[in-house]
Amino acid sequence: MRKKILFAIGRLSVGGAEKLLVNQLPVVDKEKLDPYLLTLFPEKKSATFEEKVVLAGHQWKKLDFRSLFDLISWMKLFRFFRKEKFDAVITALFSANLIVRIAAIFTGVPVIIIHEHNIYEDKHRWQIWMDWLLSKWTDKIITDSDAAKFFTAKQEKIPLEKFLTMYAPSFVDKAKGKDPGLIRRDLGLPKDAKIILTISRLVPEKGHKYLIEAANLVLDKFPNVYFLIVGWGPLEGSLKSQVLSLKLEDRVLFPGLFLGKSDIENILPVADIFVDPSTRTDMPFAIMEALSFGKPVVSTAIGDIPIFVKNQETGFAVPPANSAELADKILVLLRDGAAREKMGKTGAEMVKPYTMENYEKTFEKLIIDLSNAN
């Protein structure tokens, strides 16, 4: 008999946790598991994966929590749980980890699994306390890196045996990518120009301002290069202002989000070098995707990134918030095409085992093992 499982998240806004969930649902073994999706909050008008889920036809329950104290939504949630009688619940991000976990505990769901997708240094004391309390009824806490595992265990005083590290897979389908020449033409990029790419939300911890400073240094010594900052977020205006103040608007471009018209499998082949200048992270999904496409990576040496971004093997790992070092390593790769190619091939080989299918097999085994143990 198939086990009925529920994947729950706040909403389907574009982000790493949401992307993992949306890409995991289609590869669930439907002979073993009967997957449902639950979102708690109304979708925002900004970029979202909602259309992708609708087109895939997943079983999807949408609630409209307006706040943590929305009693009507709480009643609907408990009614939903009592009706469906799930065998396992898997949640991601704090709101779902809190709200859905409470419902799962009180309705007797046998297996409860949550995701901690980052190193959350800014959690409030009450959030840490709630995570600690609810962990007593949680079977497993999945992290994207050992760095996040050790940090969260210490922060929330939860035993390490509750945790499991599962590195995020690459989601991209290389077969669906457009001709890179067409994308260059769409973006107005010269055929012979070198392209530096970064993909992430435009928020402070992603370190875009240091990449822009580095771009200014790089362009002084290597003029035939363009920087693409792909993403969206609250810092878009200030980052564009920084670019204007440095008179880099012709070389540092903000193409927006690459979703329907141009997915990541379209934009990654255009790049010569992938850069992640984050100042706080554990293991960005985008780095795994860039490596899978055979791109050398220049990133900050934080979290578990140095496990995959190895100096002079798959790219370079530099200190965070260091524009000069970032620029220096970008220049090394710009000037050495053979090194770019060699590092790209090494990186692609390194991440070959990290597929969505392998990730899901590990996940399914975890659910079944925990179900049998309970």
Any overview of this molecule?
The chain has two domains: 3-169 and 355-373, Glycogen Phosphorylase B (Rossmann fold); 174-350, Rossmann fold (3-Layer(aba) Sandwich), CATH 3.40.50. Helices cover 42% and strands 17% of the residues. It is built from 15 helices and 13 strands. It has a seven-stranded parallel beta sheet, with helices on both faces. The chain has a six-stranded parallel beta sheet with strand order 10-9-8-11-12-13, sandwiched between helices. Helix 3 (71-84) crosses helix 4 (94-106), helix 4 runs parallel beside helix 5 and helix 8 (208-221) crosses helix 13 (323-334). The radius of gyration is 21 Å and the shape is elongated. The chain starts with a strand and ends with a helix.
Provide the low-confidence segments as ranges: none
Biggest β-sheet: count, sense, barrel? 7 strands, parallel
The tally of structural domains comes to: 2
CATH architecture of the largest domain: 3-Layer(aba) Sandwich
State the name of the first-level CATH class of the largest domain.
Alpha Beta
The shape, in one word, is elongated
GO molecular function: glycosyltransferase activity
Domain Glycosyl transferase family: 183-349
InterPro entries: Glyco_trans_1 (IPR001296), Glyco_trans_4-like_N (IPR028098)
Pfam family, one: Glyco_transf_4
